[in-house]
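Query structure, 182 tokens:
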């Protein structure tokens, strides 16, 4: 599939901008509080307040449940903006979400500062990934009790080829096709 516009993700996350609430998102680990904040990258964002029990990354996770299992051989991309009040590492993660099994693919680590950072991670689904049955995409945000983390514009889905849009509304502006379109 080829898309035009700014995103190279066939996004399946319908509430990644956090403009009104946290619908569709699941807390895991629960060593944090989350709320909607007004100071997002664009508009509002999710604001995570890490509590004292979050001394390891896995103790604070935030997931979007996928409607179907990821497909073998396809490349998926996670993309979002993030910042933190204090220095903080967070990690992209795919997980199966089956209680007691908790198979996961741990992705890129992102080092946050108090400036918005674009975070991107890609993964091509292997046989082992398929066997693990990943049904959730998200982030691990624990490990720094007392810190505050902000997430905005979260996207996840199959990676897409994006055609460049030069902004020109004219067809055949160089007259390569004679006078077609004029």
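Result returned for the query:
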């Amino acid at each position: 599939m080829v898309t035009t516009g700014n995103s190279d993700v066939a996004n399946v996350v319908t509430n990644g901008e956090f403009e009104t609430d946290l619908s569709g998102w699941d807390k895991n680990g629960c060593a944090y509080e989350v709320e909607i904040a007004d100071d997002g990258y664009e508009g509002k964002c999710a604001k995570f307040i890490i509590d004292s029990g979050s001394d390891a990354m896995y103790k604070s996770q935030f997931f979007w449940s996928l409607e179907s299992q990821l497909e073998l051989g396809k490349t998926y991309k996670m993309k979002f903006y993030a910042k933190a009040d204090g220095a903080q590492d967070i990690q992209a993660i795919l997980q199966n979400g089956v209680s007691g099994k908790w198979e996961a693919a741990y992705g890129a680590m992102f080092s946050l500062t108090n400036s918005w950072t674009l975070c991107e991670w890609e993964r091509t689904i292997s046989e082992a990934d398929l066997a693990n049955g990943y049904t959730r995409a998200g982030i691990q945000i624990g490990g720094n009790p007392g810190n505050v983390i902000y997430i905005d514009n979260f996207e996840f889905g199959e990676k897409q080829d994006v055609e460049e849009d030069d902004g020109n509304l004219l067809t055949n502006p160089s007259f390569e096709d004679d006078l077609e379109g004029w």
